[in-house]
Amino acid sequence: MEISVRRGDSIWAYSQLFQIPLRLLLDSNRSINPQALMQGQTVEIPGYVTRGYQIVPGDTIWRIASTAGVPQDSLLLLNPSIQVNSLRVGQMIGIPVRVTELVVQTVRPYDYGDMLEDLNRLAEIYPFIRRQSIGTSVMGKTIPEIRIGIGPKQVHTNASFHANEWITTPVLIRFLNEYLLALTNNGSIRGLEMNPLYETTTLSLVPMVNPDGVNLVVVGLPDEEPYRSNVLAINVGSSDFSGWKANIRGIDLNNQFPALWEREAARGPRTPAPRDYAGTEPLTEPESQAIANLTRNQNFNRVLAFHTQGRVIYWGFEGLEPSESEVIVNEFARVSGYQPIRYADSSAGFKDWFIQDWGRPGFTIEVGQGNNPIPLSQLEQIYQESLGILLASLYM
Predict the structure, then answer these.
(1) Is the pTM of the predicted complex or chain greater than 0.70?
(2) 92-114 burial string, b = 16+ CB within 10 Å, else e?
(3) What span, in angstroms and rounded, lies between the C-alpha atoms of 396 and 327?
(4) Is the terminal CB of the chain with fewer CB neighbours within 10 Å at N or C?
(5) 77, 117: one domain
(6) What's the total number of domains in the chain?
(7) What is the pLDDT of residues 35-48, one digit of tens each?
(8) Distance CA 7, CA 10 (A)
């Protein structure tokens, strides 16, 4: 929600009026000088939206504010051109409405368009989040990263490396929404105050690493060539892509990292396939390159990759994991009920590469149980189990 600065106003006064932490106001308005607000300047107020209201006979600013349950001064800030003593019947004004509920909902299989729509909505309401593109998919879809928090500890999470594991994306999007909601309402999640975590931790989220693959599974065959013909050929003519894990070129993105890649490539398919084909060499795909470049350019203290299924957490790689990994994974297990497993019978994964090259904690979290794609009916249980892990990743 945008308001217009009046002479003598201050960011601190807005924080008090709208009951928004000063830090969030400052981070929502990085381009302005809080020490020198200028009259008429626009300021973003996070955690609010504007609702239209039409003046009726007998209305006064005081009466409208009282009925709406908002401070009169907030109405004046939102409607700078209003004439307080001469309201016109039929005139439209804005009412500031504090957002107190989740705005993202998952009621159907979740595709790339759903994610963009939710991220756009969240960025509009919570302008203190930072959003950037870390690259594009084979078909040119932007791969967004969201950052929230200002702390020195950096935690990275990602989801949907694998196409038919798309259910992991709404898990991260809902957590983002719940976190933002708690911050702007001075609230908590499971009894944990969120604002101190914002100050100590920077959270990085890449909610959908494999957008082309997800859309193939959720939406169906693309119209564009040569992708349409190629995936049909790889899938032996079948239009059932429920078993598809790879990107649109038939390369498994989580078998693409230079961490014993040769071993994984040797035991997988030799040509593009719906799953497990590691490619001709490490990091050939733009999606895996995007995640690798992001990781190289940042200073992540730990990484969490969400996959399906099995309700387990893999946390080691070739004995290279640091001792703190076991402490962290035991807390993840405690809050989720998932089983920690040190080593998986696989290599060349993102968390493997992170452990190998950085010597820091990396985790592959396998949510849900059953056959991929995990049905939407499991989403609530998966979210509640994952919520404990995501919170622990911030406070540990």
Answers:
(1) yes
(2) ebbbbebbeeeebebeebbbbeb
(3) 9
(4) C
(5) no
(6) 2
(7) 999 999 999 999 99
(8) 9
